[in-house]
UniProtKB/TrEMBL annotation:
One of its GO terms (cellular component) is plasma membrane. One of its GO terms (biological process) is protein secretion by the type II secretion system. This is Type II secretion system F family protein. Belongs to the GSP F family. The lineage of its organism: Bacteria, Pseudomonadati, Pseudomonadota, Betaproteobacteria, Burkholderiales. The chain crosses the membrane at residues 177-204, 224-243, 325-346, 381-402. It is found in: Cell inner membrane. It comes from Inhella gelatinilytica. InterPro entries: GspF/PilC, T2SS_GspF_dom, T2SS_GspF_sf. It is a multi-pass membrane protein. Pfam families: T2SSF. Keywords: Cell inner membrane, Cell membrane, Membrane, Transmembrane, Transmembrane helix. Residues 75-198, 278-400 form the Type II secretion system protein GspF domain.
Length: 411
């Protein structure tokens, strides 16, 4: 019989272990008979066998493709359709597990189904797969369980994930051209410093005359790049590594996200995208029946910008102290007048969720337009930078030749 690893609680004491049983449900029944509250039951591939098979299983697990946003979109849409048609949740999960094309997604759904068979509620089953389903997803499923509207919740989650995927695709599309231009310019500067300027250095040296300042700067830069290029690369790699490590810390991530909001051109796009995400998530949470305080906690977890997320958490604390949603939003200092006006009208009319959807659509369209025109906004900056670079190179390379030709002409 297969082995199943379980975790549970016997009173205040946490227990875990491995049992042989025909199914995860049989393990759960046996544990409940012993007075253990079951938290999770999963097939234990590592139990038994030799070290070689365990290493092979670990390697196979690492080689499985990651779960893509499209996989999550398909899952939520299909699950909504099945539940709306009256298919039981266990049968729906079994069908989706069989039809899943992504191996990691198939294993995840199998684990969710096994936990559900063991008597664990669906939201907790998703919570156990924290690397796949985030806290917003789990909170919305929990609301669906409490209200009996799981099919509607999965439809709203599909719309939410579709919006998130659309935003990411727009950002990638908008940044593709500027990144390509910047990489090409960096490569051109490297080639000029390493190959072109050293070729002119011998010609300049044979002139025997004093070189212009621009030429001396170019020669010094080229010599430094040729001799210490490896040190520059190491320094650049170390700086990138250190920046990533610093951003991975909580203070570093907060400071970095605060800085992103102040970047020219891109900062306003980041802010509008976060406001659109906030408005859509808040509308979805309120429509699903979550109280405002809990809704703000869930919404803060969907924000990719930790600075804005911390401000939303501060709003929740203000509402718990008895403040209105509008006053808490004003105190946060991150919302635009449009959002504040919508919140004010929504509180007065009792339709915050509807107006938040309007805000999400407004800023979503605005972000889409800004991203489409991002290349046009960045293009003048790139042209100016490229023009300055060409001017410096032209002055450094051609001024000595010009001076030599003028002296020769006078003679």
């Amino acid at each position: 019989m297969p082995n199943f690893a379980y975790t549970g609680r016997r009173g205040p004491e946490a227990v875990r272990g491995v049992l042989d049983a025909a199914s995860a449900g049989a393990v759960a029944d046996a544990l409940r008979a012993e007075g253990i509250t079951v938290l999770s039951v999963q097939a234990d591939a590592a139990a038994g066998g030799d070290g070689t098979s365990s290493a092979q299983d670990w390697l196979n697990e690492r080689l499985k493709p990651a779960i893509q946003p499209v996989d999550m979109l398909v899952f939520t849409r299909q699950l909504h359709t099945l539940l709306k048609s009256g298919v039981p949740i266990l049968r729906a999960l079994a069908g989706l597990t069989e039809s899943a094309t992504n191996l990691r997604m198939k294993d995840t759904l199998q684990a969710v189904r096994s936990s559900l068979e063991s008597g664990i509620e669906l939201s907790r089953c998703f919570a156990q797969q924290s690397g796949v389903f985030d806290q917003f997803f789990v909170a919305m499923v929990r609301v669906g369980e409490m209200t009996g509207r799981l099919d509607e919740i999965f439809l709203r989650l599909f719309e939410h994930l579709e919006f998130e995927l659309f935003m990411r695709q727009q950002v990638k599309s908008a940044l593709r051209y500027p990144m390509f231009v910047m990489i090409a310019m960096a490569a051109a500067i490297g080639v000029i410093n390493v190959m072109v300027i050293p070729a002119f250095a011998g010609v300049f040296k044979s002139l025997g005359a004093e070189l212009p300042l621009a030429t001396r700067i170019l020669l010094a830069t080229s010599n430094f790049t040729v001799q210490y290029g490896w040190a520059l690369l190491l320094l650049l790699g170390g700086a990138i590594f250190g920046l990533k490590r610093w951003v991975a810390t909580e203070p570093g991530r907060l400071a970095w996200d605060r800085f992103k909001l102040k970047i020219p051109v891109a900062g306003k796009i980041v802010l509008k995208a976060e406001l659109a995400r906030f408005a859509r998530s808040l509308a979805l949470s309120l429509r699903s029946g979550l109280p405002v305080e809990q809704a703000l906690t869930v919404v803060a977890q969907t924000c990719e910008n930790t600075h804005i997320a911390s401000k939303i958490e501060g709003m929740r604390a203000g509402i718990e102290r008895g403040e209105s949603l509008l006053r808490a939003a004003i105190a946060s200092g991150v919302f635009t007048p449009v959002v504040l006006q919508m919140v004010a009208v929504g509180e007065e009319t009792g339709s915050v969720d509807e107006l938040m959807l309007e805000v999400a659509q407004l800023y979503g369209n605005d972000v889409q337009y800004e991203l489409k025109t991002l290349s046009q906004q960045i293009e003048p900056i790139l042209i100016v930078f490229l023009g300055v670079l060409v001017l410096i190179l032209a002055l450094g390379v051609f001024l000595p030749i010009w001076d030599l030709g003028r002296v020769s002409f006078k003679k």
